[in-house]
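Thought: the user wants the 3D structure for the chain below. I'll pass the sequence to the structure tool as-is, report back what it returns, then summarize two notable features.
Action: structure_tool
Action Input:
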Amino acid sequence: MIPYSLLDLAPVTEGSDPTQAFRNTLDLARHAERLGYLRYWLAEHHNMPGIASAATAVLIGHVAGGTSTIRVGAGGIMLPNHAPLQVAEAFGTLASLYPGRIDLGLGRAPGTDQPTARALRRYFDSADAFPQDVLELLAYFEPAVPGQLVRAVPGAGVDVPVWLLGSSLFSAKLSARLGLPFAFASHFAPDAMDEALALYRRDFQPSARLAQPYAMLGLNVVAADSDAEARRLFTTQQQSFIRLRRGQPGLIPPPIDDIESYWTPPEKLMVERSLACAVVGAPGTVQDGVADFIERHRPDEVMITANVFEHAARCHSFALAAEAMKRLGNSA
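Observation:
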């Protein structure tokens, strides 16, 4: 059985608020720990009313402190928004508090719009310096040497696994060159997935951090007791994508009965293309869909995500997804 992990954005649903979103996140993390998920990752986004994980490192600490064994990390920290030293200190602190349980995934997008990027005191063109920033950050995690003028305290000599995240070939190439694990954002931008995976595996150079390539793929899995109910729950994610493309991001909407009346034909094509890596249905449908995804793409790990409006239904979806992964492992 390949490892399966969970990506959460601490969604803020209509009629709720961030306080409730954080309660739900911790409850879901504890649920995931019991279900056998390997990792629980949170992602940095800014100026998005429906996503409460902007202060990602703070929320990681909250989740790690409320769980016992599951790995907790960032999927990811958007490095252009931060000084590498500050990231090293934050994650050095987390890894010192929760040894052996903290992951650091790095992205090169700002995770927001350009006005907000400016408000963060960094600029989108700082993404051009992403490779240098990654190297600087990795150096801060190395043991400090005599005469070193700047060190991360905590951070120097602390074991923090570092991943690169991406939805294009850029991070695949950089991950391969630096010998780092690679996570591809196929759950919302799958177009370059197969090419990126092939490039990463072909060009991978072993490093002190990783001896052989290790690739994780994102997969939307919305599971329910029937195919019809799962498809209905999935309309929450579909609506959210359309609202974002219309320039109207807001709180996470409840599901609707007729998605066809909500979107235009071009919007439908956009959503279906963006969410092509999605398995939606009852337990049997989910097991078959996940098995097909793994067979076709051969990831080393699957990162499952689900934007489901009702918290109980979301927990149930992740439980059914975990059961499907376990059955696949047993059959293998």
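Final Answer: Structure generated. The chain has two domains: 4-220+301-320, 221-300+321-332. Residues 35 and 322 are 6 Å apart (CA to CA).
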